[in-house]
C-alpha cells in the first residue's frame, strides 16, 4: 500500500508545542479539549475588480483561536503562501503569546492569499475593504481586533477601520490596532515589536553575562520587526554585521550603518547594493559566527538542513515560528539560548493592547509612557519564563508555552463551560 507523508505544517508544530507544554503542566484531558482548538474558523471569497477590468477572486481567512481571557487579537497577513493551516497556527500562538505577557486578550489571525507586491494601491484598497466586509460579523472592539502583520501596515488598518465604521455610522477606532496616529493609533506601536525584541535580548544578555556593546548581530528579514530591532541594537552599541530581506543580503564584518541602511530600504525597498558592504547568500548569512541571530522573516527559515550551520549564542525569534521542531532540537542540543517567539515578539501585541485601551478611553499617552510600560511588561514576562526554565529545567520555548497555556487553562477552568 502506498503511504504518503507530508512535511509538518506550522499548525502541526503549534499542536506539538501545545502537547509538550500541556504534558509538562500535567493538564487534564478535559482542559486540553477546551483550549487546544480554534473556536471559530472562517474562509471567505474576496472578489476584486483588478486594474485590468477583470474580476479576480482571492481567498481570505479569519481564525479566532480563543476568547477565554478577552477579545480575540491578531494580525492580518497578505502573502502568496498564506494558507488556512498557517493562519490557524498563528492564531494559536497569539493565544499563548497574549497570556505570556498577561494582557486581557485571546488569540486570532487573518490573512489573504495574494501577492501584494504585484498589486496597485487601488487593488490593495479594494481587496482590504471587501475582505473586511466578509469578516465583519466576527470583528469588533469587544470581539476580535485585527492588526498589521507581514505586508500589511497602518494604511491597511485605516481602510479596515473605515469599512467597519461605515456600517455603524460613526468612527470606531478600537476595531483595529496599528492604525495611523491621526486615526487613534498609539505612539510607539509601529516600532513596538522590534523594541520588544530588543528588551528581551537585553534581558538574555544580562542573564548570560554577555555584553551587548560590541556583540555581533545577524538579522534575517529587514521589515518592521527586523529593522527596528536592528536599529535599537545598533543604538546600544551592538555590531550588526549582516542583514537580509527577500531580495538579498548584505554583510560587513565591521558593522553596518543601520540608520543609513533603513534609509536605503525606505527609498528602494531593498537592502541589496548598500555601500560599504558585500552581498551574502541566505545560507551564508545564517552560518555567520555571531553572538545574536534575529530571524525576523517568516516561518520555518531555520530547518534541519541548515540548523547545524548556525554559529550564534542567542537566537531571538522576532518572526513567528522561524525554527522547525527538528531545528529547535538541534540548537537545544548545542545549548544555543533561544528567546521563543511568543515571548520575543510580544511587544507588538502589548502596544496594540495599549492602543486599544487608549482608544476605549479617548485618552492618549506620551511616547515615553508607552516605551516605559512596554519595557516593564517585556522584562517581567522574560523573568517569568526564565524562572520556569530554571525551576522546571525545560527549554525556554516549553517554559513560555507552559506560562501562556497555564494561564489560559486556569481561566477556562474558572469560567467553566456552558452545559
Ligand atoms: P514585514 O512585511 O514588515 O517584513 C518582512 C521582511 O522579511 C521583509 O523585509 C521581507 O523582504 C523579508 N523576507 C521575506 N522572506 C524572506 C526570506 N526568505 N529571507 C530573508 N528575508 C525575507 O513583516 P514584519 O511585520 O516585520 O513581520 C516579520 C515577522 O515578524 C513575521 O513572522 C511576523 O509574523 C512577525 N511579527 C510581526 C509583528 C509586527 O507587529 N509587525 C508582531 C509579531 C510578530
Description:
- Helices cover 45% and strands 18% of the residues.
- Helix 3 (84-100) links the parallel strand 3 (72-79) and strand 4 (107-113).
- The strands form two sheets. A seven-stranded mixed β-sheet has the order 9-8-7-6-10-11-12.
- The protein has 14 helices and twelve strands.
- It binds nicotinamide-adenine-dinucleotide.
Helix fraction, binned, reads 40-55%
Q: Bin the strand percentage.
A: 15-25%
Main beta-sheet strand count, sense and barrel state: 7 strands, mixed
- Find the count of extended strands (DSSP E, 2+ residues): 12
Structural category is alpha/beta
Low-confidence stretches: none
Q: Helix-strand pattern, N to C?
A: HHEEEHEHEHHEHEEHEHEEHEHHHH
Describe the secondary-structure layout.
Layout: H1 10-25, H2 29-35, E1 40-49, E2 55-66, E3 72-79, H3 84-100, E4 107-113, H4 121-135, E5 144-148, H5 154-168, H6 192-208, E6 216-220, H7 224-235, E7 239-245, E8 248-251, H8 258-268, E9 278-280, H9 282-286, E10 289-295, E11 311-316, H10 325-333, E12 337-339, H11 341-344, H12 347-361, H13 367-391, H14 396-415
Parallel strand pairs: 3-4, 3-5, 6-7, 6-10, 10-11, 11-12
Antiparallel strand pairs: 1-2, 2-4, 7-8, 8-9
The structure holds nicotinamide-adenine-dinucleotide.
Task: Please give a quick description of this structure.
The protein is α/β, with parallel strands linked by helices. It is built from 14 helices and 12 strands.
Task: From the structure above, extract its key features.
419 residues; alpha/beta; 5-stranded mixed beta sheet; 14 helices; binds nicotinamide-adenine-dinucleotide
Amino acid at each position: 500500500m502506498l503511504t504518503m507523508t507530508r512535511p509538518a505544517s506550522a499548525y502541526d508544530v503549534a499542536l506539538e508545542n501545545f502537547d509538550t507544554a500541556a504534558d509538562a503542566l500535567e493538564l487534564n484531558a478535559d482542559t486540553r479539549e477546551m483550549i487546544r482548538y480554534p473556536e471559530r474558523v472562517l474562509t471567505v471569497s474576496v472578489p476584486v475588480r483588478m486594474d485590468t477590468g477583470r474580476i479576480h477572486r482571492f481567498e481570505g481567512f479569519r481564525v479566532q483561536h480563543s476568547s477565554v481571557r478577552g477579545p480575540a487579537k491578531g494580525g492580518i497577513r497578505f502573502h502568496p503562501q498564506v494558507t488556512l493551516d498557517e493562519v490557524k497556527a498563528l492564531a494559536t500562538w497569539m493565544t499563548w503569546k497574549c497570556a505570556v505577557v498577561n494582557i486581557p486578550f485571546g488569540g486570532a489571525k487573518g490573512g489573504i492569499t495574494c501577492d501584494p507586491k504585484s498589486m496597485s494601491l487601488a487593488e490593495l484598497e479594494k481587496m482590504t475593504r471587501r475582505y473586511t466586509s466578509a469578516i465583519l460579523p466576527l470583528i469588533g472592539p469587544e470581539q476580535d481586533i485585527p492588526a498589521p502583520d507581514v505586508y500589511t501596515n497602518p494604511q491597511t488598518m485605516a481602510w479596515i477601520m473605515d469599512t467597519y465604521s461605515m456600517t455603524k455610522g460613526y468612527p470606531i477606532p478600537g476595531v483595529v490596532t496599528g492604525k495611523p496616529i491621526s486615526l487613534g493609533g498609539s505612539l510607539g506601536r509601529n516600532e513596538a515589536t522590534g523594541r520588544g525584541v530588543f528588551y528581551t535580548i537585553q534581558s538574555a544578555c544580562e542573564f548570560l553575562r554577555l555584553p551587548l556593546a560590541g556583540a555581533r548581530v545577524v538579522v534575517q528579514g529587514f521589515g518592521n520587526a527586523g529593522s527596528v530591532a536592528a536599529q535599537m541594537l545598533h543604538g546600544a552599541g551592538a555590531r550588526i554585521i549582516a542583514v537580509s530581506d527577500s531580495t538579498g543580503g548584505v554583510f560587513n564584518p565591521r558593522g553596518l550603518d543601520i540608520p543609513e541602511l533603513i534609509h536605503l530600504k525606505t527609498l528602494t525597498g531593498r537592502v541589496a547594493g548598500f555601500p560599504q558592504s558585500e552581498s551574502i547568500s541566505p545560507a551564508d548569512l545564517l552560518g555567520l559566527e555571531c553572538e545574536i541571530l534575529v530571524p525576523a522573516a517568516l516561518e520555518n527559515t531555520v530547518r534541519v538542513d541548515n540548523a547545524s550551520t548556525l554559529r550564534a549564542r542567542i537566537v531571538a525569534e522576532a518572526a513567528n515560528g522561524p525554527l522547525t521542531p527538528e531545528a529547535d532540537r538541534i540548537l537545544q542540543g548545542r545549548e544555543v539560548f533561544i528567546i521563543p517567539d511568543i515571548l520575543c515578539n510580544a511587544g507588538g501585541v502589548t502596544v496594540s493592547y495599549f492602543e486599544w485601551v487608549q482608544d476605549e478611553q479617548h485618552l492618549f499617552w506620551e511616547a515615553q509612557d508607552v516605551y516605559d510600560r512596554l519595557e516593564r511588561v517585556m522584562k517581567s514576562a522574560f523573568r517569568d519564563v526564565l524562572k520556569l526554565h530554571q525551576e522546571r529545567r525545560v527549554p525556554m520555548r516549553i517554559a513560555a508555552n507552559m506560562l501562556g497555556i497555564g494561564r489560559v487553562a486556569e481561566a477556562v477552568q474558572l469560567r467553566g463551560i456552558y452545559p
